[in-house]
Amino acid sequence: MHILRRDKKEEEEGGGNPFHNLEKTTVLQEARTFNETPINPRKCAHTLTKVLYLINQGEQIGTTEATEAFFAMTKLFQSKDATLRRLVYLGIKEMSKIAQDVIIVTSSLMKDMTGKEDQFRGPAIRALCSITDNTMLQSIERYMKQAIVDKNHAVSSAALVSSLHLSKGSHEVTKRWVNEAQEAVSNDNVMVQYHALGLLYHIRKHDKLAVTKLVAKFSKQSLKSPYAYCLLIRIASKLIEEEGAGSDSPMFEFIEGCLRHKSEIVIYEAAQAMVNMKETTAKELAPAVSVLQLFCSSPKPTLRFAAVRTLNKVAMKHPAAVTACNLDLENLITDQNRSIATLAITTLLKTGSESSVDRLMKQISSFMTEISDEFKIVVVQAIQSLCLKFPRKHSVMMNFLSQMLRDEGGFEYKKAIVDSVITIIEENPEAKEAGLAHLCEFIEDCEHAVLATRILHLLGREGPRTPTPSKYIRFIYNRVILENAAVRAAAVTALAKFGAHCEELLNSCIVLLLRCLLDTDDEVRDRATFYVDTLKEKQKALNSAYILNGLQVSVIGLERALHQYTLEPSEKPFDMKTVPLASQPITEQRVQAVREPGETTAPKATDKVAASRQDVYAEQLARIPEFANLGALFKSSTPVELTESETEYVVRCVKHTFPHYIVFQFDCTNTLNDQVLENASVHLEPSDGFEVIKYLPCPKLSYDTPGTTYTLVRMPDEATQVTGTFSCTLKFVVKDCDPNTGEPDEEGYEDEYVLEDVEASVADHVQKVMKPNFGASWEEVGPEFEVEDTYSLSTMKTLEEAVTNIIQCMGMQPCERSDKVPEGKNAHTLYLAGVYRGGHDALVRSKLAMSEAGITMQLTIRSTDQSVSEVLASAIS
Amino acid sequence: MDSGNLEPSLYTIKAIAILDNDGNRLLAKYYDDTFPTAKEQKQFEKNLFSKTQRANAEIIMFEGLTCVYKSNVDLFFYVVGSSLENELILASVLNALYETTNQILRRNVEKRVLLENMDTVFLAVDEICDGGIILDSDASSIVSKVAVRSDDIPLGEQTVAQQLTKKLEVLQSAKEQIKWSLLK
């Protein structure tokens, strides 16, 4: 009785688990009993199970321990007990990776594999293959071939599957088993059929013709196994994708035919394959969509999930094709499985019309609290894309998003919402005020410093330009009182921006900033002191340069320049203008990333460009001694192709602009495998004033290995003369070579190849710069060197076209989102900002008006240098 | 990333797991290196369990994988595959796993009975999936492969105890009869 009670107590502790608290050493100790004779099958089976259980729990077993246990285990082959023997096979498989000399059991396993006990044969084959390496494969090959075509299907399956595992190591040997595999496909057991087809495809998959034949053969001779059908569908759709075959190909017909198969697995596989194909029309998809529609009302959650998920994919490409299922999808909104419900809603949001938006939003909010953050983000993204699709519905969406902001949620979720709100604000000016108000409310109680600083930055940029800027001040100042240092610093900057932009708020802002002078944090104090002093000057130019529009330089470049300066101390103060500018503002990329509809969180285009393209070029050029004293690299153009794409030699040109020089970088590729080019350089025929200083030839151009040659050109001294056309010729020494070995002949001859002309345009001298507050910069530069002219652009049809062309001509950055022309307007103003070579700020205001005669443009250019303004004006002609 | 098709292959299953109602692993097999270390595997199981223990929803997208699952009393059965895998195939494997276990445990699908028959369940999982390839998905065929002879499986304590009590009862009734006969 006493013992019983204790047992019971132990049982409770271990939750009735006899394997609870197993000690590795004790169990391995126990394993020594395997050596005893006679063998007690039940006891040994129990011990072996314990060992397996331990391994299964992820317990690490050392090599010596494992080897010891493994050898003890081999003794158990003496017992005839079926369960024990099967457990031994399992043990062999588990330990084959950790123990040494496992091949010792080969002969025992071979005996079982060819023995009379059918029950042992399959598992024995699988265990054998787990201990076999390539060197031993030869010796079992004959048995494997026999096993594949064995009439016992368990044996046959085991052999086929093991062959597939083995073929990872040695493809060559398994290749020889193709005839046996072929025979096994016609086996009447479903699994054997499936495994044989898998092996057959694996052997032949690099032979496209054979694969095509395979599909053709088995798509006619009807297979029994649904799995085999699925595999065949995948093979077929892969072929279709590779060949780009249309819906008229027999493969497509086969897949479409599978939609009428009796097994749901096959039907769904076929539908999924059709949806995933790249080039299908809505009409071709219709049958697939209709079977998916049927699945939507299935009682099985998995089937509903699969159907909705696939329909969601269809909705991305062909929203119209899914509209037929809208009714079924709406039934799924209330599905018990929240994943299904969410997928149904996001699909509906994609296919739905403007009128159904309100109703759907109501539906979502009813269960928003019940779903996981991951799905909430999906919903947020769906709402965002919807908001961009139907701008008029922004108020409903904004309310909804703000509601979500108030609810509980993790950082990723909140970030997704804030991102969406900001995107909507940027895309739709009407939504701006409501959006800002919601964000203000959000930062009142926001635990994520990153989001708070981001919103404060946005408020500083957008807030001053709203009709009533004063209402934001309170929210911002609250942050100064209540938050941690990082947020306080951001809030101080935002306050200063209000002061700089709105004169009527200037004094109040200074008062508030004065209070921050006693802050405990250095950064906050420094910022406040700096801003107060700047604001007190009351100079628009100062405000613009130091508060409203920050530094425009590339951070990596600045770091490098400062480092250089500290290495070579000089009398001259550090000149900011020598620092390369930050190229490619980040905003453009982000908007694009957001527009791509992604079912799950699409990997956002990395907001931080680690090292921009230009920094990479700067590094490369700095390493060439000939270019060391050219000064700082000002701008690198995008590559221009100087040849047709399929010619003997492919040449691309990148122009690098320095203060007084242009370096032409030619990336050349030799596409002829029987030639080697040596000493290749590109000769330029310069136009007036330009002077070729140096050629840096590429010593050798082998087949298909790109090489680079440089040409250095000095620009004319006349400041207004900056453009020109250069005709280019590639000169080189050709040596014939053996295509196979690449060994060139000794003798070569000179030859040349004419390339297309390269043009140095105004855009090469201008670096794009984003001015967040264009108006302030415009005042800052002032009208001293202003150039104004009126043009008529007769060749342009639309305002959009004109805007795109002007941006391209000038090579400057559009500001204030003025590159987007609102629909249905006849007039538009484009603001462009940039920095001219030598560090001169340049701003362009282009007023466009459309009439029946064409587009008229009034162009005003301001810069800090007269010649710069003139050059820019000459860009448009 | 979502639009691609799967490379045609027999390797379908990424993992099979049976957990108890605290999310502890009773059995877990991983067939590829999605989770290379035991630590990562256990973390994954833990996260998966916390997502699935309440909602009885049968299928979930989790950490970029498709997981189908089923629970009974204090056991949770999982089959995990790629997010591009045909969900119905995974479901059919889960069904095979559950049905097989059900038959092996003679309809007592609960933790205690499962642990008593751990060896047979190990064998069954081995027959369902080999290195990620579905070996068999028909429950009765799997059971016939593992369960050696039906009366051979658990001639465990339970049956012995039953026999004992039976004998005791017989003894008791004999005693009683003797008592009565004496009293007469």
TrEMBL record, chain A:
<keyword id="KW-0968">Cytoplasmic vesicle</keyword>
<keyword id="KW-0333">Golgi apparatus</keyword>
<dbReference type="GO" id="GO:0005793">
    <property type="term" value="C:endoplasmic reticulum-Golgi intermediate compartment"/>
</dbReference>
<keyword id="KW-0963">Cytoplasm</keyword>
<dbReference type="InterPro" id="IPR009028">
    <property type="entry name" value="Coatomer/calthrin_app_sub_C"/>
</dbReference>
<dbReference type="InterPro" id="IPR017106">
    <property type="entry name" value="Coatomer_gsu"/>
</dbReference>
<feature type="domain" description="Coatomer subunit gamma C-terminal">
    <location>
        <begin position="763"/>
        <end position="876"/>
    </location>
</feature>
<dbReference type="InterPro" id="IPR002553">
    <property type="entry name" value="Clathrin/coatomer_adapt-like_N"/>
</dbReference>
<dbReference type="GO" id="GO:0030126">
    <property type="term" value="C:COPI vesicle coat"/>
</dbReference>
<keyword id="KW-0813">Transport</keyword>
<keyword id="KW-0677">Repeat</keyword>
<dbReference type="GO" id="GO:0005783">
    <property type="term" value="C:endoplasmic reticulum"/>
</dbReference>
<dbReference type="InterPro" id="IPR013041">
    <property type="entry name" value="Clathrin_app_Ig-like_sf"/>
</dbReference>
<dbReference type="Pfam" id="PF08752">
    <property type="entry name" value="COP-gamma_platf"/>
</dbReference>
<dbReference type="GO" id="GO:0006888">
    <property type="term" value="P:endoplasmic reticulum to Golgi vesicle-mediated transport"/>
</dbReference>
<keyword id="KW-0472">Membrane</keyword>
<dbReference type="GO" id="GO:0006886">
    <property type="term" value="P:intracellular protein transport"/>
</dbReference>
<comment type="subunit">
    <text>Oligomeric complex.</text>
</comment>
<keyword id="KW-0931">ER-Golgi transport</keyword>
<dbReference type="GO" id="GO:0005198">
    <property type="term" value="F:structural molecule activity"/>
</dbReference>
<dbReference type="InterPro" id="IPR037067">
    <property type="entry name" value="Coatomer_gsu_app_sf"/>
</dbReference>
<dbReference type="InterPro" id="IPR013040">
    <property type="entry name" value="Coatomer_gsu_app_Ig-like_dom"/>
</dbReference>
TrEMBL record, chain B:
<dbReference type="GO" id="GO:0000139">
    <property type="term" value="C:Golgi membrane"/>
</dbReference>
<dbReference type="GO" id="GO:0006891">
    <property type="term" value="P:intra-Golgi vesicle-mediated transport"/>
</dbReference>
<dbReference type="GO" id="GO:0006886">
    <property type="term" value="P:intracellular protein transport"/>
</dbReference>
<keyword id="KW-0968">Cytoplasmic vesicle</keyword>
<keyword id="KW-0931">ER-Golgi transport</keyword>
<keyword id="KW-0813">Transport</keyword>
<protein>
    <recommendedName>
        <fullName>Coatomer subunit zeta</fullName>
    </recommendedName>
</protein>
<dbReference type="GO" id="GO:0030126">
    <property type="term" value="C:COPI vesicle coat"/>
</dbReference>
<comment type="similarity">
    <text>Belongs to the adaptor complexes small subunit family.</text>
</comment>
<dbReference type="GO" id="GO:0006890">
    <property type="term" value="P:retrograde vesicle-mediated transport, Golgi to endoplasmic reticulum"/>
</dbReference>
<keyword id="KW-0963">Cytoplasm</keyword>
<keyword id="KW-0653">Protein transport</keyword>
<feature type="domain" description="AP complex mu/sigma subunit">
    <location>
        <begin position="12"/>
        <end position="149"/>
    </location>
</feature>
<keyword id="KW-0333">Golgi apparatus</keyword>
<keyword id="KW-0472">Membrane</keyword>
<comment type="function">
    <text>The coatomer is a cytosolic protein complex that binds to dilysine motifs and reversibly associates with Golgi non-clathrin-coated vesicles, which further mediate biosynthetic protein transport from the ER, via the Golgi up to the trans Golgi network. Coatomer complex is required for budding from Golgi membranes, and is essential for the retrograde Golgi-to-ER transport of dilysine-tagged proteins. The zeta subunit may be involved in regulating the coat assembly and, hence, the rate of biosynthetic protein transport due to its association-dissociation properties with the coatomer complex.</text>
</comment>
<dbReference type="InterPro" id="IPR039652">
    <property type="entry name" value="Coatomer_zeta"/>
</dbReference>
<comment type="subunit">
    <text>Oligomeric complex that consists of at least the alpha, beta, beta', gamma, delta, epsilon and zeta subunits.</text>
</comment>
<dbReference type="Pfam" id="PF01217">
    <property type="entry name" value="Clat_adaptor_s"/>
</dbReference>
<dbReference type="InterPro" id="IPR022775">
    <property type="entry name" value="AP_mu_sigma_su"/>
</dbReference>
<dbReference type="InterPro" id="IPR011012">
    <property type="entry name" value="Longin-like_dom_sf"/>
</dbReference>
